[in-house]
Give the backbone structure.
Amino acid sequence: MNDAALGQAIEKHLLALCNEFGNRHVGSPGNKESTNYAKRVLASFGFETREKLFDCMEWEASQNVRLEAGGRNWPAQAGPYSLPFNGEGELIAISTLDELEHADITGRVVLLHGDIAREQVMPKNFVFYNPPHHQKLVSLLESERPAALICATGKNPGTAGSIYPFPLFEDGDFDIPSVTMKDMDGVRLLEHVGSTVRLSFESRRIPSTGTNVIGSKGGVGTPNVIFCAHIDAKKDTPGALDNGAGVATLLGLAANLAHYRGEQRIEIAFLNGEDYYAVPGQMQYLADLGARIREIDLVVNLDALGHRDADIAYSFYGCSDRVRNHAQAAFAQDPVFVEGDAWVQSDHTMFVMAGCPAIALTSSDFGWLCQEITHTPKDATNLVDCHKLATTALALKRFVERIC
């Protein structure tokens, strides 16, 4: 398939994923349509496909949050996966863990602000990263049982993307109702500490299912090389760069591997849950691999690549000289590729933590995208250069030809 035809095919995939199916958050109808679509495309190019359902949680909330204090209504939104709330209580403000340890918060409405609300709290059961101060915060809150939480936050691009205000808690296993407001509004709300606040909002957790979609070619047994991209997106965002672009690129790669018959087993894995609090697809995939993960030669992860104003940045993690040399040779044929810095905010990290060599591809302005675009409605298809995605798919095909 030539460059122009491949670019058109990739654009078709991208538009379907981001514009036709609806939101791709895990458990949603749009997510299920997306995984079905990916499976059909892989099968059309001769890939042996498989999928396995996992349990997950869809979540819905009313946009009408009523937060009354000092005779006025304050802007706020329901925290993702929060339980609903309708009640009132004395407002108390907490800005540090030390304050929380010594405060009586039982039955009160707690305003979390300042240092304690500067970074998104890792979900209780998130196994890849969960620092002690996050665990302590959750433990203190659960043991003291406040009535509800008001979380005054700013931006936290390292884990929450560019959304403002970011949700301090995004965890379906955390059962204290919470709402989010902007940090500047939290400062103003401090004037009403000690008074009674009224808070009400509707939300519900909905049992659902999701699936990974895996396509394999060549060889037998454990895959030698895995190309992966997460197929899910944050709720209420098109998820074009994060990560429709990665999925569309790998579907383009699949087209170029339609006639692959090598002895090395290649797998294209669309993992479902990178932007979901419990990463269920990733956990299932690792569980299915088990100890066989040590037999994998290489993982290539694509996430947030193809920004129209940036290059394609590749980075290496524990790779041999052979892999580095072949990858650099494959990428050197087009000036759009540059070697970038290491980064951790995607699925390659879980493989690296298990001792598996990896290459990650993203946009060279990944940091700026996290600050301004990802996890928001701004992450739309007009930001994606499908010619760059086609160039990437062709480079990955050259890489396969070199190492397989």
User: Anything to note?
Assistant: The mean pLDDT is 96.
